[in-house]
Design goal:
single chain, 358 residues, alpha/beta, Rossmann fold, 7-stranded parallel sheet, 6-stranded parallel sheet
């Protein structure tokens, strides 16, 4: 395999980007790792970070980010993206075209088939309902050479709707950036309370994250001298803020390079989603040796690891019990499995192996 074209509907983002999206960061790190042994080109949305050129990656910021448009007006942009991916692939002459987001599944697949190239796609989060879910189910049924999924639940979803080999590609963390640090200095830097325990959530404010339920369960737990800190932005933020109680604080999104300070400032990190792939926030927290309290379905991927750094719950009563357990530091753990399994060289190897063998 000589050359790979990575196609992303999102603008590719480096860690220096203030507020990068997860998929955009994934492409950045994957491309940087793959470029060590392969020729890599990227076709991505306009506004992409160009620093990957220094790693030998050929950058083409020529796509439209269609997700920002209503379904009724997306079709012209999908056709535009198909043309751009096709022309880029003709010029680049890749052996494989890989679609990172559902928004570029169709353009990537059609361009690859027209040029008689291998085609692969990746599903990093569950398409939950409505048109997006039906579209994903439909397109996964095409004749892909490989389908990648992030986590066991997504792998099961893809296997149900695709006839192609489905590979659990996993996720990784930048271990040079995310390291244990002093909690007091971290709180001072981010201007966070110094004399209380902090249960921290960081991410999007949207229904799938179940933040209203998290606030309710936290309030019912009545954990003394503890504050729930919700960090991020999204469509539900104002409504959630208006309904939160006294022991809930809000902070707008923190620049990515400062996220290690947030994890190190936390007494524990919490994730209340019902379903996730392999959420980056969990891996980053553990890399900083911050324990994680996670809703059992969302943490399914981590059940394979024998670590006391992750504590699971499934209902309000268990949440209260496990919150007390984790905040009283009765969950001593090591993070060896992070440095062993959640590295970008491992992700790159899982990416290339099925393409080389197919």
């Amino acid at each position: 395999m000589d050359k790979i074209l990575l196609v992303s509907e999102e603008p590719v983002s480096s860690p220096d980007t203030p507020f990068p999206r997860g998929g955009a960061l994934f492409i950045y790190y994957l491309a940087r790792e793959l470029a060590k042994e392969h020729k890599i080109a990227i076709s991505a949305a306009r506004g992409s970070d160009t620093s990957l050129k220094d790693a030998g990656v050929e950058m083409h910021s020529n796509l439209v980010y269609t997700a920002r448009y209503h379904l009724l007006v997306r079709m012209p942009f999908l056709l535009y993206n198909l043309l751009r991916v096709y022309l880029t692939a003709r010029a680049v002459k890749p052996d494989v075209l890989f679609a990172k987001n559902t928004g570029v599944f169709l353009p990537t697949y059609l361009a690859g088939k027209m040029l008689n190239k291998k085609v692969a796609c990746g599903v990093g989060s569950m398409p939950y309902a409505g048109f997006n879910r039906r579209f994903a189910q439909h397109v996964l049924g095409y004749k892909w050479d490989v389908v990648y999924a992030s986590g066991s639940r997504l792998k099961e979803f893809c296997e149900k709707h695709s006839n192609a080999p489905v590979v659990d590609i996993g996720n990784a963390v930048d271990l040079d950036l995310f390291q244990p640090g002093n909690w007091l200095e971290s709180r001072k830097k981010l201007r966070l309370p110094l004399k209380t325990r902090l249960l921290v959530y960081a991410g999007s404010f949207e229904p799938v994250k179940r933040l209203p339920e998290l606030i309710k369960w936290f309030t019912q737990a009545k954990s003394s001298n503890t504050i729930l800190l919700l960090v991020g932005d999204g469509p539900d933020r104002k409504k959630i803020m208006s309904e939160a109680g006294d022991n809930v604080l809000f902070k707008e999104s923190i620049e990515y390079m400062n996220m290690p300070y947030l994890y190190n400032a936390a007494s524990a990190f919490v994730l209340n989603s019902e379903s996730e792939g392999i959420p980056r926030s969990v891996v980053e927290s553990l890399a900083c040796r911050t324990p994680v309290l996670i809703h059992k379905p969302a943490g399914e991927y981590y059940h394979r690891y024998d670590t006391k750094g992750i504590v699971y719950y499934s209902d309000p009563a268990e949440f209260s019990e496990k919150l007390n357990l984790i905040l009283n530091k009765k969950t001593g753990f090591d993070t060896n499995f992070i440095s062993e399994d959640f590295t970008w060289d491992k992700v790159a190897a899982r990416f290339t192996q099925p393409l080389l063998s197919s």
